[in-house]
Backbone:
């Protein structure tokens, strides 16, 4: 029994339609992807790069100063010591100190950099809350800028607050009360007799 030559074969048309649908889908995906603006680089990338480079230069200058530029923290005394080179401690030097609280920006503190003639400035940490702080110091001498940063952990004071010595005070009060009772029980003090009046009475 021979096959009917007039019978329709769908396979060729199906293959062609599959390729057409695949091509249209790929084209639509390309158009959709190209219409979405996915900027991986910010618009001010160049400005950010310049700021970052300047910040690195500030830190490098401060590092080259060695121990003449440092931030130290003495938790026992509750003091932050900021040291800059003595030749930087002059009136034309401008600088600022920033105590940065990472967990609460509202607690940040700002101070002017005013070192003494030896280039030392001391800050008291008595008013700082316990926790992590970052000390940032920025100053410039002429056209040269410097930057220091140091993290510290301010712990709660381990020294107990001075309390009134209630035991001694109570003992003093009891002693004063006892003395007052003895004075009252003894009656009024004896007055000295008038010797002249006695002699006159005897003579009579």
Residues:
């Amino acid at each position: 029994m021979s096959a009917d030559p007039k019978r329709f074969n769908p396979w060729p048309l199906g293959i062609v339609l599959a390729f057409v649908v695949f091509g249209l889908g790929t084209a639509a995906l390309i158009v959709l992807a190209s219409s979405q603006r996915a900027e991986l680089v910010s618009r001010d990338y160049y400005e950010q790069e310049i700021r970052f480079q300047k910040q690195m230069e500030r830190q490098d200058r401060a590092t080259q100063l060695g121990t003449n530029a440092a931030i130290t923290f003495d938790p026992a005394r509750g003091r932050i010591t900021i040291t800059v080179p003595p030749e930087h401690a002059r009136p034309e030097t401008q600088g600022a100190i920033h105590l940065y609280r990472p967990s609460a920006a509202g607690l940040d503190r700002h101070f002017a950099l005013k070192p003494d003639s030896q280039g030392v400035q001391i800050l008291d940490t008595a008013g700082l809350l316990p926790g992590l702080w970052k000390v940032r110091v920025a100053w410039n001498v002429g056209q040269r800028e410097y930057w220091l940063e140091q993290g510290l952990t301010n712990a709660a004071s381990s020294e107990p607050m001075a309390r009134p010595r209630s035991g001694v005070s109570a003992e003093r009060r009891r002693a004063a009360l006892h003395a007052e009772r003895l004075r009252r029980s003894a009656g009024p003090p004896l007055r000295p007799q008038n010797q002249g009046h006695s002699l006159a009475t005897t003579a009579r």
About this structure: Confidence is low (pLDDT under 50) at residues 157-169, 194-204. The beta strands are 70-74, 79-83, 94-100, 109-112, 120-124, 131-141, 144-154. The first strand starts at residue 70 and ends at 74.
